[in-house]
Please model this.
Amino acid sequence: MTGDEETSDTEPVPTSGWISFRDAPGATPGNEAPISIEEIVAGGLAELPEDIRSDSIRSQLEAYIERLLDTNTRVNLVSRRRTTHHVARFVRESAFLARILHVDRARLIAPTYRLLDLGSGGGFPGMILKIALPDVEVQLVEGTGKKAKFLAEVAQALELPGLSVLWGRSEQIARIEGEGAHGVAHTRFEWVTGKALGSLVESSRLAAPFLAPEGVHWTFKGASCEAELAQAGGYFRQIGLAPFAVEPIPGHAESYVVGIRKLPSSPANVSRETFQGGPPVRRRR
Model:
């Protein structure tokens, strides 16, 4: 996954009050004023439940975003056009997902909550989720070496326990044998997240082998959400998945967090190779 795949330079400018600078003095649609780190963090904190907001989360978000923006001048972590606008949106979307996961704990009642983030890129949503939910064990998977190195440096600098970074492609992780790479190939996670992993069929195909029974794959979708859910129905039934939730992201038209649940009746004899199957997917040229 490349930085250009994570972002779209043609996506419309969000119009929620805290992020739009169209009316700022001297700003034009093609020359928008950058958003400060303080404003980006404030937007993310606003999406978190009040009972988990803290000064620690604020300071860690600030440190992460500062390092992200600095590193982005040398490594393509986020689009370099309208960078702070993209970062502000990704932080707020990821924090909104953190709110959802915070509520979902009550349903799962697990002794340890584990999250796998596939194709972590510059850290969205996985790094934000770890900062917002520090007691969750988080594994980040990133296929680009420079991005994986950045994530590992952030984890060390912010002293985030229960966070590990694996350099490898999401499609290959399921084939890893033994206890290498933190044993991720043999771990079952309550949540598997990912951004820009393709269609719901494609992202679910990647996520399903790692989900514990009743675990949920969470991803972000746009205007194609309803059509993709309809297309994926047969595949979901085949491998024991089902739509769980579709949550509109506040302030962003036709933007959703989508959850796909692994049913407890999911066939125990379904192999990882079966998960890697699925209906043919029409790719853009």
Observations:
- Residues 32-275 form a domain with the Rossmann fold fold (CATH 3.40.50.150).
- The chain has one domain: 32-275.
- The first strand starts at residue 114 and ends at 118.
- The beta strands are 114-118, 137-142, 163-167, 189-194, 211-221, 241-248, 256-262.
